[in-house]
């Protein structure tokens, strides 16, 4: 799905490329980017709000290695951004 102006448009993704979405928080106006599956609901890394406006920023390359993903998540965690982790991963980080 692509969201444009609040309208969802169905699209096909034959290459399995995961889109990198840009978000703007409606509550605190923070802007950020994250990889998001269609079943996930991201939250603002600044205030935790789920009231977000979403646009496609760019496409992430297909087939990223586990090492690159791990390094990217570690960097995001050091910077205080946890929005790219799944809910189960976040539970382990917050202990």
Cα shape? globular
Q: Sheet bearing the most strands, described?
A: 3 strands, antiparallel
What strand order characterises the main sheet? 4-3-5
Give the termini separation.
34 Å
Poorly predicted tracts of residues: 1-5
Kindly state the percentage of residues in helix: 10-25%
**Element string (H = helix, E = strand):** EEEEEHH
Q: Write down the overall mean pLDDT.
A: 73
Protein name: Regulatory protein, FmdB
InterPro entries: Regulatory_FmdB_Zinc_ribbon (IPR013429)
Domain Putative regulatory protein FmdB zinc ribbon: 18-57
Organism: Magnetospirillum gryphiswaldense (strain DSM 6361 / JCM 21280 / NBRC 15271 / MSR-1)
List keywords for this structure.
globular; alpha+beta; Regulatory protein, FmdB; Regulatory_FmdB_Zinc_ribbon; disordered N terminus; 95 residues; three-stranded antiparallel β-sheet; two-stranded antiparallel sheet
């Amino acid at each position: 799905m692509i969201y444009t102006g609040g309208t969802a448009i169905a699209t096909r993704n034959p290459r399995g490329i995961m889109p990198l979405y840009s978000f703007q928080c409606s509550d605190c106006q923070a802007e950020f980017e994250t990889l998001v599956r269609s079943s996930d609901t991201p939250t603002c890394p600044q205030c935790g709000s789920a009231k977000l406006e979403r646009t496609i920023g760019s496409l992430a390359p297909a087939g990223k290695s586990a090492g690159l993903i791990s390094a990217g998540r570690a960097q995001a965690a050091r910077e205080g951004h946890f929005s790219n982790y799944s809910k189960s991963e976040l539970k382990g980080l917050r202990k």
